[in-house]
Specification:
Layout lengths: L1 H5 L4 E4 L4 H13 L6 E5 L7 H6 L8 H6 L7 E5 L11 H10 L2 E4 L10 H20 L6 E5 L22 H10 L2 H12 L5 H15 L6 E6 L1 E3 L16 H9 L5 E3 L8 E3 H16 L8 E4 L9 H14 L12 E3 L2 H25 L6 H19 L8 H8 L3 H6 L9 H16 L7 H33 L1 H26 L1
Parallel strand pairs: 1-2, 1-4, 2-3, 4-5, 5-6, 6-10, 7-9, 8-11
Helix pairs in contact: 2-11, 6-7, 6-9, 12-17, 13-14, 18-19
Amino acid sequence: SVREWYKGKNVLLSGGTGFMGKVLVEKLLRSCTNIGTIYIICRSKRGLSPAQRVADFAKIPLFAPLLKDNPKALEKIVAIEGDITVEDLGLKPEIRLELQQKVNIIFHVAASLKLEAGLKEATAFNLKGTLRMLELALGVKNLEVFAHLSTAFCHCEEDILEEKLYEPIYNPHDILSAMDWMNDKMIDVITPKLLDNHPNCYTFTKRLAESLIAEYGDKLPLAVLRPSIVVPSMKEPLRGWVDSLNGPIGVMAAAGKGVLRSMLCKPDYRAELIPVDVAINAIIFLACKRAKMQTKEVPTYNLSSAETVPIIWGELVDLGRKVIKEYPYDAGLWYPGGTMRTNPYTHAIFVFLCQTIPAYLIDFIMLLTRNKRFMIRVQNRISLGMELLQYFTMRQWNFKTDQFLGAFKSLKPEEQEIFYVPLSNVDVRQLIKDAIVGSRVYCLKEPIENLPRARKHLKWLYWLDKISQFCLVLLFAWLLISYFPVLRQFVNIITPDFAASTMMHKVTKTA
């Protein structure tokens, strides 16, 4: 069984302090209780050492259920000072030797998820970092599996993404070499040509990383796992757990706060999503499956729930609107609204009128009242995020998941319960509600106890929105009448007749 296989195994994890990494650590400790040591490579950050960062897991709600049942669970974690962007991972020789002697499983989860990152930064994290992890793995004596986390969006030109590795478009070593000797200006010049069909450097470098993985297929027991858009947890250990506002969750939060009024999106296209707990379950049992294979090929799995739990963007947004009105965010700036649009020109006009102009007005008021300005900065971040996201919402994606789902179905019934993957009968509304409440509580730190106050605030915003719309209609009508003589003459003709007919009606009724 999966849990038996993990018994006594030592795990090395990169990216263990990130969103998916933390969920993976928690699940391994909770469901594979006899697991050995979990080594987490991470760097010091914001004045905290790796050991302190891992110790802070105890303060995160994600780990609360685990620690309630097993207060000493985190003692199995060993934090290691390291950095995938540094030569030899920044590991001390004695630590490197210890890892190569003791580790059995490697999960390479670390990556730069910044879609706006430049090619040099993305290459350092996603390509060079992967190469360094592979080089470390070559020296691991008892390695049973190296699971590499990729993305389902790394082959953008494919109409249907099969569960296989594709031929490289460039030699990844050539790209690495170019990043070493080219200056920033040269890199900026060649980047558009290199990216070609790719919307950003993230998907491009993740694709190149898969090419590196393919090179090592005959030397290491490798597996490639490609999740689609990862969203908050569906079921465990907490419903709606999320710790960042990336992707659709950021869109919902911005719309819920009233600062996002237009979105480029094809409403009838399928949303390729997977809850983080489902993705982590898949990573765990697929790593076990790969370890038991006797092959030098690199099995590849597309992790998406779109085929088993189909939902289109239009349905997702409509349900999100309804849920946000029931579970509003605190201190919204305007009544939640906005519309999905497919025409980029119409979208640009509405963004300018309904987002950009109000942002400048708000910041102008803040300036007059000697308060800190923030709205233009917020809108700039939203605009950048939406510009990057719209590539994924304006295309129909098709990911084959036969191997992924087949591996799940091969599990014993009791392990299908533990490492669940939804195959049908999913309450999508509940999933969206949990995601919105989760973003509210875990990301924005807005206590659920504030909901009554937030609902009152939402009612106030509703009437403010309606009054504003009415005033805008009157203003627009006045401008039309003022600047177009024909309309003014028409109103002058109609108004007396209307007044006279009204007066005659009253006189007749009185008589």
